[in-house]
């Protein structure tokens, strides 16, 4: 213990026993929370209060458990010393005695492994078929809610209490059906079919809630029925499922359009809280009042400003008259300036027109034509002589290579009846008609004989 200023020892502040137990309870509930525990029942006690107290044990430890009356009525599994069970509960501490204990919520026989395995197999098969693909939004809030549950169970009381407190405008119709045992699944399927057929007659029926309280896996097994799951999937009306407690999960929850962990939570999800809506309306009314007040203040200031700017109509007319006089003077000056500019432009165009008079242009063109005609008369004789000389040279060259010049020296060209030149004796035949082209004239010939060298 640390000494104080005077040198004496001061004890640190101490907790009371109740405070320590309270802190221990809070730590257990927050850190450990809800768990599943398996063990053997021992010391099962049922006092007149309706609560059930027992001990779970194994070969090395034991655990005190308390199953309160409100939860005990939902437990169908018989509890006897020596039975092996699984329990779900909240780890806590009984503060008056400092006893560490488990507050039990549900009890299952330890042999439920086969049911869980069957549950998982059916779940996987239905998921592969797309039976769990529903995700339609439920109307919010619904106009007419159809509740499928037991009329004597706590679930319907919880739902109706929450709906009445949050949104009493919703119309609720209870469809009484068994929610446990062999009759539960067929009754639920029949009710779903009937409600879907009647929906066309009453379109206001717009949502279905299937619900019941918690229980063991056997108690909830009707909601794992394959035919019920398919009926929920094919329902035209959107379906919400709220079966059991938060940790209880059934195949009906997967097939439904929406799932709630408890019946009360389902009612809270289905409808808004009227008190919250009223508070919101009050806040909106306050905002509207403040906005109106601010708008009125702004408009009042604007009105004051406009009133200060408002002048007598005579003053406005005098100002407009003076402005009109100024505009008239500016218009007159602008017109005079515009006329002077147009006169200068007209004079400039007249000067340009005089310089480009058509008569003067024609005279200049005639002078150019006369000069061109003189140059043409001078160039034509020279060009004709040059072309004659070039033509004479071409004629001489043509005569030098012309076949006619060869014929003039005594040669002849033989052609057959097709006009083809005969170059070899082998190209002719005796009696064939030929034509000989001479330097002057042509001869018609006929072949008498053919000699080849």
UniProtKB/TrEMBL annotation:
Q: Which reaction does it catalyse?
A: Exonucleolytic cleavage in either 5'- to 3'- or 3'- to 5'-direction to yield nucleoside 5'-phosphates
- Put simply, this protein is called Exodeoxyribonuclease 7 large subunit
Residue ranges of domain Exonuclease VII large subunit C-terminal in the record: 134-444
Write the record's keywords in alphabetical order, separated by commas: Coiled coil, Cytoplasm, Exonuclease, Hydrolase, Nuclease
Entry function? Bidirectionally degrades single-stranded DNA into large acid-insoluble oligonucleotides, which are then degraded further into small acid-soluble oligonucleotides.
Some GO term, biological process aspect, for this entry: which one? DNA catabolic process
Keyword 4Fe-4S: yes or no?
no
Please list the coiled coil stretches. 281-337
